[in-house]
Amino acid sequence: MKILVTGSSGRVGRAAIERLLEEGHQVIGIDAAPSSDTRWPSAKVDMRDYGQVLDAVVDLEPKIDAIVHLAAIVGAKVAPSTHIFHTNTAISYNVFQAAKIAGVKNIVFASSETLLGIPFTEPPPYFPVDDSVTSKPESSYALSKLVDEAVAAEFCRWDPSLKMIGLRFSWVKEPHQYNEFKATEQNPELQKWNLWSYVDSRDCAQAISLALNSDLSGFHHFVIAADDTVMAQPTHALMATYYPDVRIQGQIEEHGSLVSSRLARDVLGYCPKYSWRDNRADVS
């Protein structure tokens, strides 16, 4: 396929492009700060400007087959909340509308685990939380992702031949960042906000590839997380300390994640390949 990747210079964007190139796809990247990597063409595009986005999507020849939309302000506290909401929703609408004009029917975009109720000031209804939980945005960032999903659902209602898949990525980490988990091991409170969940950027790329190649139609969303937590402590010990009253629904392994990707596993075939434990000889 010929695939346009927005936000191509980010953690997920870099990993996704690496995988898509390995699979033989042609990739074009667009970003506010495009990559200098010469293995694929990149362009600087202000994603907030619909005209620039439309030009990037429509003017390509031959036309693109799919879009991987990753461009966004990532995180709830990295900018003023109003700026985050306005920017993210505008960017996504610009991409979705430009895709509609260009006739692109295969769109995969970055949603977020924040829709599960992060930072869980109120405990979730059960463990592990999954795609069945009613969306509960607790920040302007999370709200922007809920709007993205709602807009995608309506675009798909308007056009039954359209596929739009929102991947609710957990806390994305690259391998060189795994040392950051050492602080959390000494103080579990630091990562309680997302139930000690994470996902390797390379597994995000796997999920993107699977979503692009799936034969689904309409709008779908999937939680994408690692199978384990960021903690050396057993998961049941964490639950007993911090969430003693939350009902356990299904089996949870010794270090099993409290954020479940089971729907992605069952529907897309997603299977996390990478764990921070593989890089730590001192983990018992």
From TrEMBL:
Residues 3-224 form the NAD-dependent epimerase/dehydratase domain. This is NAD(P)-dependent oxidoreductase. Gene3D superfamilies: NAD(P)-binding Rossmann-like Domain. It comes from the Bacteria. InterPro entries: Epimerase_deHydtase (IPR001509), NAD(P)-bd_dom_sf (IPR036291). Belongs to the NAD(P)-dependent epimerase/dehydratase family. The keyword Transmembrane does not apply. The keyword Lyase does not apply. SUPFAM superfamilies: NAD(P)-binding Rossmann-fold domains. Keywords: NAD, Oxidoreductase. One of its GO terms (molecular function) is oxidoreductase activity.
